Each structure stands twice: as structure tokens, then as C-alpha cells.
Amino acid sequence: MDYHLPPAVAILAVGAFALMLMASLKRRRSDAIATLALLAIGIAIFAAILTIYPFGGYRQNIYLGPVIFLATGVSIHWMADSLAALTRREWLAPALAAVAAGAIALAGVGDMQQDSPYEKHHNAKAVLAFLEENVEEGDMVYANMFAAPSMKFYQDEKPSNYHYGEAQCWSAFERCTQEMFGLVVSRPNVPNRIFLVHGRESILGELELLGEQVSVERVIAGKDINISLIANAKESLEAAVRSHYEALVAGEPAVRADFDISLSENTLVYVKEPCARADTEAMFFLHLYPVDVNDLPDHRQQHGFDNLDFNFAGRGVIFGGRCLATVALPEYDIARISTGQYVRVEGGFDHLWEGEIRLEQ
Prior knowledge:
Strand content: 15-25%
Helix content: 25-40%
Largest sheet: 5 strands, mixed
Radius of gyration: 29 Å
Distance between the termini: 47 Å
Number of helices: 9
Order of helices and strands: HHHHHEHEHEHEEHEEEEEEEE
Structural class: alpha+beta
Number of strands: 13
């Protein structure tokens, strides 16, 4: 939500501020509020030119709000006092201040009617009500990282068959799919049905890649929080995951180490068998060295390689004593891939294992 002054109020405020600034310059006496406002705006402009933002990549300017509103109020008050002194009518100052306050209030109400900051965007209550009515014993509910916070807020207690995802999958639902699969295949019994609670991601397309045997139906759609249902999970999902695993690991791996590593089209595949959860706890490092360093993101060009380090929980699944993780590679040409697992030690890092893939260009 963007919070802003209504256009009419903003024009009035800028005009009053400009007059107050001109008057203070004419008197050759700096006004504290005007100086503070100009300093804050100047710092913001300077930071923008250097792309240094207070909140990282989020180009917010809400931190300027207090000084801007203070300068606006002082400017309007100064303008009312100046007009009252010019016309020699003392009553004019409070009258103009009241008119300005009324105009601001009316403009604000009109603006909020069009774009209310208190509008409820998430349909979490409706989603929870649907789940409470339809989820049966033996079913599983998986809420991805987008939907989970809203559900937690409205739930007094999380049922045992509800799982809140931790994988970040804003741009690609594959990570959430893998996390969900890991939960499914690690259970003693595959659930009868799986209710997937998610945002507007293309989850149906992701699951369709596993084969026609997986039946996915969108039961709540078009909202900020959606629900999709896998109705035939027990019959099809585990078989689909195993089939997907076998297709990915077919062929000779490019690296044999603690985890065997294969390159399948534009995806890096990590496989370990036999494997337990303890084998996946250490962080994975993944460094990509491009053919042309200019293909790297701006913040990585000075380092000469791309850093795609990851946790297994967000990229992989464990089933039947086997571990599988996949990482989609960027589109640019890669000359060399260095990967492995590491743990933090005093003074740095300790590599548990590592491997390298050199690609022919």
C-alpha cells in the first residue's frame, strides 16, 4: 500500500513550503523546519542517486513522513499568519487554518474511499473456515510461506495435520512443491487428500509436470490466498515422486561425492542413497563462474561468480532412504560450477565435501 498526500493537499503544502522558504531566505534567516525538511529530502535524493536505500532493495520513502508532515503543517500555519498580518484581520489566521484542516480531512476521506489503507486484502478467515469444514482425518494441509502467516494469525492452535512451509518460492513454486513432497513421503502413511494453501503462483502447472496421474483441482481461486486439492494423493503422488526421481538420476553423474551431482538440461540435481536427514543439515554452497562476468547480476560482478548457496529443506525431499535436491540454473553461459556442503567453524568455514563441474563452451 502506498501512503501519500492527496494531490490537492500536496499542491497546497508544496506551495506553502515554497513561500515559507522564500520568505526565510529573504529575511536571511534560516528556518529550522525548512532546513530540516530540505536536509531530509536532500539526503533521500543523494541516496537514490547512489542507490543506497534505508530498507535495502525496497525503495520506500515512508521514513520521510514525519518531517514532511511537520513542514507542511508549519508552512500552512505560516501562510495563514502572513495573510492575517497583511490584511490586518486577526480572525483570518484561525479561519484559514480551519479551512486548510477541513480541506485536508475531506481530501483524505476521498482518497481513502478509493484506496483504503485498512482494506482487508487476505481472505484467510474464509480459507480457514473452508478447511475446518472440509479437511478430514487422514488429509494433510500444506500452506506455503506466503499463506502461512495469515493462517497462523487467525488460528488459536495448529492442527497436527497442518504444515506451514518455510521454502521461499515467490517466483517459482518448485521449491514449495519439493518441500511438500518431502513432508508427504516422510510420513508413515501417504495422506488421502492434500489441500495446498498458496498464493497466486502457477502451482497447477508445476504439478502437471509430474504426470497425468496427479489430479489437482483449484477449489478456491482468484483470491490472495487460494486452495488447490490433490484428491488422489495416496494412489498417485508417491509413485509420481519416485518416477520423477528416476528420470532425474538417469545417466552417469558429473560429480561423485557425498552427493552425486548430475546436470539435467538446465537443472542441477543432487542425489544421495542411502541418505538420512542428518546428511542434509549442513548448508550447500553453489558457486557459478560465467563465461562472461558481465552476465552476472550487478552486485556479483565484483566477485566474479554467482552465489546460489541453499538449504536442503527448501530444495529437496527425502523418501525411501534417498535424498534428492534440484536447483534451476540461470540462463547465462556457465564455464565452471563449484559446489559442496560446509559448516561454520571459528574463523571461517569447513567444507565437508566439494566437487566441480567444467562445462564445454
